[in-house]
Design brief:
By secondary structure, this protein is an alpha+beta fold. It contains 17 helices and 13 strands. A hairpin with a 4-residue loop joins strand 10 and strand 11. It binds (2R)-3-hydroxy-2-(alpha-D-mannopyranosyloxy)propanoic acid (2M8).
Length: 435
């Protein structure tokens, strides 16, 4: 069974790999290269075709802007199956944008520090992989410098996101209260996602109006960071984004130390790391909820909901023993009912939970991978192994879907798999789980 699943996953990845040296997340639905998808995808390739793994990373990092920014989508090719495309985003408004590639002017969680380190662990030819890392690592470092120098508004080591698409958890109920503070125009545009996937499993038209409006504001100011920080109606500290940054810092520090002669960079990362960890715990850990929460900087208030991102700091060194215990307890009590697969993307005990709608409840394999490694790191072996076996069972029973219903007996559908099929990071991370 294991070998069969791996073979199928390899087929998914190989079919999604494109001539330009990058992999689409899912045919039709997502026809370009996405930043954090690309990192997870590289891990899958690394187990059977190391040159594709390296190519994937090289290609996304090649789209870096002169200020260190790495965009969330790189439009290598034209495609009319996705909206909004390059003509909407217009990354060239920013004076330091890549001259080589069209992209968006927003980013996604900074996964590449830990991706480089994991590639090194997986690679059989360590010397060859270290040479590759030496060529790429400064780009990842510059990306972290970009975050700390441009997005750390309070100089406390926590960096903001200015769009829900930067979080990766697009239509999470987390953002509903922010949408209440906005009143965007009703834009006229043609959605493409709903021609690939059942509209009831995707964000609403009104939600898209909000998404586009934030981009229009950023575009009016040529994607200038300071202006965005001043004017964007969406300005959030996200525990997932920040703990991924912290975890990637850790990897960069270890890699630079083994490369040698990079003391200044190591010092810079260590200094910021210390601040990030302290602030993550003091500002984003919510004692009563027993979980990390998001903070709405624009409206100066906590967003007191628990979602899968609330547990992501486990993947980093940030949680103290007490915090880690509290996270594991909350996950088990609220998300871990018998009869439910781990880990729903939003609190299943909350009225806003929706088991079928994208980031409003379904299980996502990339989040499960982060949580699996995080739980293991902090010594919660039973919960870790449950999250891994739940992930494998969901894929084996339903296929390589984008997201899955967490209810083991699902009264609403024959399959627990929703969204795009033959989904790249689902395939890639199954391989990484099984190898
Ligand atoms: C989803 O997001 C894109 C926008 O970035 C979309 O819905 O159009 C999210 O799940 C995001 O996390 C993911 O990276 C992307 C591609 O898989 O799809």
């Amino acid at each position: 069974m294991k070998e069969q699943m791996i073979d199928k996953a390899i087929q998914v990845l190989d079919r999604n790999f494109q001539d330009g040296g990058f992999t689409i997340p899912s045919k039709g639905l997502y026809p370009f290269q996405w930043k954090w998808d690309s990192g997870f995808i590289a891990l899958g390739f690394a187990h059977y075709d190391i040159s594709k793994a390296k190519k994937e990373v090289e290609t996304i990092l090649d789209a870096q802007w002169e200020n260190g920014f790495i965009p969330h989508i790189v439009f290598h090719n034209d495609s009319d199956t996705y909206f909004p495309g390059p003509n909407f985003h217009k990354s060239n408004l920013h004076p330091l944008a890549s001259k080589k590639y069209r992209s968006t002017g927003m980013t996604q969680p900074p996964v590449f520090g830990f991706i480089l380190e994991r590639l090194y662990e997986i690679a059989k030819n360590k010397e060859d992989m270290m040479n590759f890392i030496k060529k790429q690592i400064d780009k990842v470092y510059e990306n972290h410098v970009y975050f700390y120098e441009n997005r750390d508004l309070n100089n406390d080591g926590l960096v903001y996101i200015y769009h829900n698409w930067e979080s990766g958890t697009d239509n999470s109920p987390l953002w509903d209260d922010i949408w209440e503070t906005m009143n965007p125009p009703e834009y006229t545009f043609e959605r493409r996602d709903t021609s690939h996937v059942d509209a009831s499993q995707r964000p609403s038209k009104r939600e898209y109006d909000h998404y586009l409006h934030i981009i229009e504001i950023a575009k009016e100011h040529n994607y200038d960071d300071a202006k965005i920080a001043e004017l964007s109606p969406f300005l959030v500290l996200d525990p997932l984004f920040n703990s991924v940054l912290i975890r990637s810092n850790e990897s960069l520090i270890r890699l630079y130390e083994s490369i040698g002669n990079n003391e200044e960079k190591v010092d810079y990362l260590k200094q910021n790391q210390l601040k990030s960890v302290q602030s993550l715990n003091s500002k984003l850990f919510h004692k009563d909820l027993g979980a990390y929460v998001h903070f709405d900087l624009r409206n100066n208030r906590q967003i007191p909901y628990i979602c899968s991102s609330s547990f992501a700091p486990l993947y980093s060194s940030a949680p103290t023993r007490l915090i880690a215990e509290s996270l594991a307890k909350t996950m088990l009590e609220k998300f871990g009912d018998a009869g439910r697969y781990l880990c729903a993307s939003f609190d299943p005990t909350h009225e806003k939970f929706n088991p079928k709608k994208y980031w409003r409840g379904p299980v996502w394999i990339n989040m499960n991978w982060i949580l699996y490694h995080g739980l293991k790191r902090h010594g919660f072996y039973d919960l870790a192994s449950r999250i891994k076996s739940d992930s494998l069972e969901l894929i084996e029973k339903n296929g390589f879907f984008e997201y899955f219903d967490s209810r083991q007996s699902n009264p609403d559908a024959d399959s627990n798999g929703y969204g795009g099929n033959n989904f790249s990071w689902t395939a890639a991370l199954l391989i990484d789980f099984l190898k």
